[in-house]
């Protein structure tokens, strides 16, 4: 299951300079703007689900949180768990694995600038884990695995506001 929530849904509590929580911050529940029940996929480039018709009303921009569970059978090259885009280098938001490794990749294009958070050894074939990737209004990007903070980029950027023409479910 993947869920995308707006603005302050688990994003960036900013508990002071240098402070980082050890676990997902406790917040009031926020209704997701997009919920996708997920499916089994091969990781091949043609294996994705185009979600544009179901989620045409969704506009991304500013702070957001994306939660999902995943279990890889094998690690394919750059398999995207979430891929919301407008074409190469244009407002894209994607989460997946780096090359054919277990490194989590969380990338955001903010106008013409790509920001990244890579966290090694997050995906192990055969293991199911829950993840939460957030970006706050100042651009701080965080990744959590099973409720534990596993990575942070304090110099990220929130996504460029607007709809995404190609909101895809699992793809490579």
Automatic annotation (TrEMBL):
It comes from the Eukaryota. Residues 1-23, 151-172 are annotated as: Disordered. SUPFAM superfamilies: Concanavalin A-like lectins/glucanases. This is Galectin.
């Amino acid at each position: 299951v993947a869920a995308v929530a707006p603005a302050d849904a688990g994003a960036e509590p900013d508990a002071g300079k240098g402070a980082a929580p050890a676990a997902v911050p406790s917040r009031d529940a926020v209704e997701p703007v997009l919920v996708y029940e997920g499916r089994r996929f091969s990781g091949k480039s043609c294996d994705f689900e185009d979600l544009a018709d179901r989620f045409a009303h969704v506009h991304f921009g500013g702070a957001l949180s994306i939660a999902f569970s995943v279990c890889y059978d094998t690690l394919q090259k750059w398999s995207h768990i979430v891929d919301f885009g407008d074409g190469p280098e244009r407002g894209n938001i994607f989460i997946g694995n780096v090359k054919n490794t277990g490194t989590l990749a969380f990338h955001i294009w903010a106008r013409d600038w790509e920001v990244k958070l890579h966290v090694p050894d997050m995906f192990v074939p055969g293991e199911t884990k829950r993840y939460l990737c957030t970006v706050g209004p100042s651009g701080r990007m965080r990744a959590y695995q099973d409720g534990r903070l596993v990575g942070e980029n304090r110099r990220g950027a929130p996504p460029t506001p607007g709809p995404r023409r190609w909101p895809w479910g699992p793809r490579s």
